[in-house]
């Protein structure tokens, strides 16, 4: 959160921060459960259409919540057993096997934990409060500990990816083909990403959405040694208090974006053509350091967000003028 406040203080972002949220399209909801105060991840259920899985950030417990996408009310709280005490749960994703993967991958000191964890359990067939046994996987990075908030499971291959979080740009890490409980699962850097707070694969596995505090973009997913292809900023993305989560709707026609805080809103962002695009058809690089495209990604998305905020402000001003 401190990083977000520093960004809002920067002159180049004063307009975006001050403009307030852009109007959200129909189909969003407000999380009404008072127990969910730090919704940090989001995943659309396939077993229960219209339901979204979420969880709190640090300080809660081994809980996952099923929230009704129409009313915002909690339909079930799942208590996980077979895992240790969660430290900093940041992400949730649904795999092609029907299992939910929960990423206890946060590290606010950016390297204080030698390992982090992934918890995995089958998506419950019934939506009711219950206790389920989960599998815990030990995760380490080939190039050392780091902070991360985005965990994505590819919907076709089932391979798990993690995007690390740094203000200057992070890395995209690929896990082994199959996670193992026999020892550490080593994730290796395969690409560069901007300042990321969450991510999600499209249902058909051809795109990867990455979200930051002021940026939301879709990348073409190529897989292989350099998995990230061209990107474009997603127009119509609202500016939220603390942009924390993103998931695709099950039909892939929209993205759902959420924020932390009590009574936090989850907004629907329909996917249409438009928005700033990657320069010269550039995707990502697997080289070390900041990728040149990261700055363009953030700047392009900021332009789109700023334009949306200005549009909303202009409509309000014109409306007041007509009433005067």
Automatic annotation (TrEMBL):
The name this protein goes by in its record: WD40 repeat domain-containing protein
UniProt keyword list: Membrane, Signal, Transmembrane, Transmembrane helix
Cleavable signal peptide: 1-24
Keyword Glycoprotein: no
Segments passing through the bilayer: 297-314
């Amino acid at each position: 959160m401190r990083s977000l406040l520093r960004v809002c203080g920067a002159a180049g972002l004063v307009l975006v921060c001050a403009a307030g949220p852009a109007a959200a399209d129909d189909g969003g909801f407000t999380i009404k459960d008072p127990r969910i105060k730090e919704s940090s991840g989001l995943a659309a259920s396939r077993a229960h259409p219209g339901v979204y899985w979420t969880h709190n950030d640090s300080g809660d417990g081994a809980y996952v919540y099923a929230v009704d996408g129409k009313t915002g009310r909690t339909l079930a709280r799942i208590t996980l057993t077979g895992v240790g005490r969660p430290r900093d749960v940041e992400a949730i994703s649904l795999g092609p096997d029907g299992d939910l993967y929960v990423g206890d991958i946060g590290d606010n000191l950016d390297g204080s934990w030698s390992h982090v964890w992934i918890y995995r359990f089958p998506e419950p067939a019934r939506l009711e409060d219950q206790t389920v046994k989960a599998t815990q996987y030990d995760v380490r990075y080939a190039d050392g500990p780091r902070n991360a908030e985005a965990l994505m499971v590819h919907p076709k291959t089932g391979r798990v990816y993690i995007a690390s979080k740094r203000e200057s740009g992070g890395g995209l890490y690929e896990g082994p083909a199959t996670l193992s409980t026999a020892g550490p699962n080593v994730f290796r850097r395969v690409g560069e990403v901007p300042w990321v707070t969450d991510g999600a694969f499209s249902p058909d596995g051809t795109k990867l959405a990455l979200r930051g505090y002021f940026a939301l973009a879709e990348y073409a997913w190529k897989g292989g040694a350099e998995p990230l292809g061209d990107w474009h900023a997603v127009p119509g993305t609202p500016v939220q208090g603390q942009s924390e989560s993103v998931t695709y709707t099950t039909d892939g026609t929209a993205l759902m974006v959420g924020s932390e805080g009590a009574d936090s809103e989850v907004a629907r962002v329909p996917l249409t053509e438009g928005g700033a695009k990657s320069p010269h058809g550039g995707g990502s690089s697997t080289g070390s350091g900041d990728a040149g495209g990261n700055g363009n990604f953030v700047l392009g998305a900021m332009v789109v967000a700023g334009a949306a905020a200005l549009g909303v402000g202009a409509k309000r001003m014109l409306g007041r003028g007509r009433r005067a």
